[in-house]
Amino acid sequence: MRELLDDIDRWRAEGKRVAVARVVDILGSGPREPGAAMAVNDVGEVAGSVSGGCVEGAVVGEALGVLHGERGPGIVSFGYSDDEAFAVGLTCGGTIRLFIEALDW
Amino acid sequence: MTTPSAPLYDVLRDRLRRQLPTALATVVDGPDPGRKLLVTPDEVLGGLGHPELDRIVARDALAELEAGRSGIRHYGPEGQTTPEDLVDAPTLSVFVESWSPPPQMWIFGAVDFTAALSRVAKVLGYRVIVCDAREVFATRRRFPAADEVVVSWPGPLFERRGSQLGQRDAVCILTHDPKFDVPAVQGAIATRVGYIGVMGSRKTHDKRLERLRDVGLTDDELARLMSPIGLDIGARTPEETAISICAEIIARRTGRAAPSLRDASGPIHG
To answer: Which part of the chain is the XdhC Rossmann domain (chain B) (predicted)?
Structure first.
């Protein structure tokens, strides 16, 4: 999160809305620790990362969904072994769970 | 729970910029996902929906902060944590993320190995403090990567600041000089520091153990020393030695035996 602060400040100063996705849980092998975070603004610009590049594209879509009011804050899972899993997976075979929310707090 | 005077994010951002210890608890699964409690050693801001839940989560968040850990914890709606209380109760999943100040590495001895080790330790995020009693050697110019260069004998430094050291921190003693090694080891052993490494050949190590026993250290205390320092990767240069030391610190923290991944089995990140 610390490494996202400058981008978030700049986007908000420009009047953009921001969503934050944070890794909250890892099952099996995962590339990043809980707390790894990325921020997405309402025009789709991105800062930070939550995996080795495997799922970032899908996270942008989810984050924009939150910013456009299509879904509320909540957990999204990525990986092969989880029932909720999206088609996008991690190359290392694990599952990561992300909490995605609008930065409105 | 108190109502913050500024939005929680602003408080969080300012604390992260100043590297102050801070934990943020977020309800990630439950009736009202997104609710937050910001926990610091001095105050608790925000709220998760019930005062008792706030009290319990704040307590747990401070423990996570102390350990430098982040992860999900489960509670009942009023902060219940025991399995019996959670049967048939709707549970909340709370993600506690903690930001601790960077771990410290204290390096004793202003030698070439110290310059290389301070560079590698900085890459790993340590706050690096170099200490040597010799004013001519302990200069900022020789150790530009270090956050602090202290001209002092080890004893006074440990007396002043040893209580800051904890499990995540490391003390590396690279002096080779018994005058300096012995008080540095004594000082380090009196702290809760997680890693104590001491440089020297096996012969030096054996002689040093004798001296340390002479000053009254017990076998249990001496068992904390990683000496000779570092993993056996055949390191020769100061830079290679620095990698060997830092790799040992990581392996001790994670409890791994440090073989090549090819020759081991089991999860890589587990």
So the answer is: 105-249
Whether A88 contacts chain B with CB within 8 A: no
Q: What are the two backbone dihedrals, phi and then psi, of residue B183, each rounded to the nearest 5 degrees?
A: -65, -30
DSSP string, B149-218: EEES-HHHHHHHHGGG--TT-EEEE----HHHHHHHHHHHHTS--SEEEE---HHHHHHHHHHHHHTT--
d(CA B210, CA B108): 20
Q: What is the Cβ-side half-sphere exposure of residue B225, based on CA atoms within 13 angstroms?
A: 29
pLDDT of residue B29: 95
In contact, A92 and B21? CB cutoff 8 Å: no
Residue B21 has a pLDDT of: 92
Say how far apart CA A96 and CA A105 lie, in whole Å.
24
Q: Which pLDDT tens digit goes with each residue over B82-135?
A: 877 777 777 899 999 999 888 999 999 999 999 999 999 999 989 999 999 999
Q: Which CATH architecture has domain B104-254?
A: 3-Layer(aba) Sandwich (3.40)
* Alpha helices, DSSP H, located in chain B: 8-17, 51-67, 83-86, 112-123, 154-161, 178-189, 202-214, 219-222, 238-254
Q: How far is CA B26 from the centre of its chain?
A: 24
Residue B80: count other Cβ atoms within 10 Å of its Cβ.
19
Q: What is the ipTM score, two decimals?
A: 0.89
Nearest CB among B9, B16, B97 relative to A22 is that of B97
Alpha-carbon torsion (B40, B42, B47, B51), positive or negative: positive
Q: Is B253 on the interface with A (CB under 8 A)?
A: no
Mutate which of B70, B92, B96, B100 to disrupt the A interface (most A C-beta within 10 Å)?
Answer: B70
**Which one-letter DSSP state was computed for residue B110?**
-
Nearest to B157 by CA among B109, B117, B201, B198: B109
Q: Where are the domains of chain B?
A: 8-99, 104-254
Confirm if A75 and A86 have CB atoms less than 8 A apart.
no
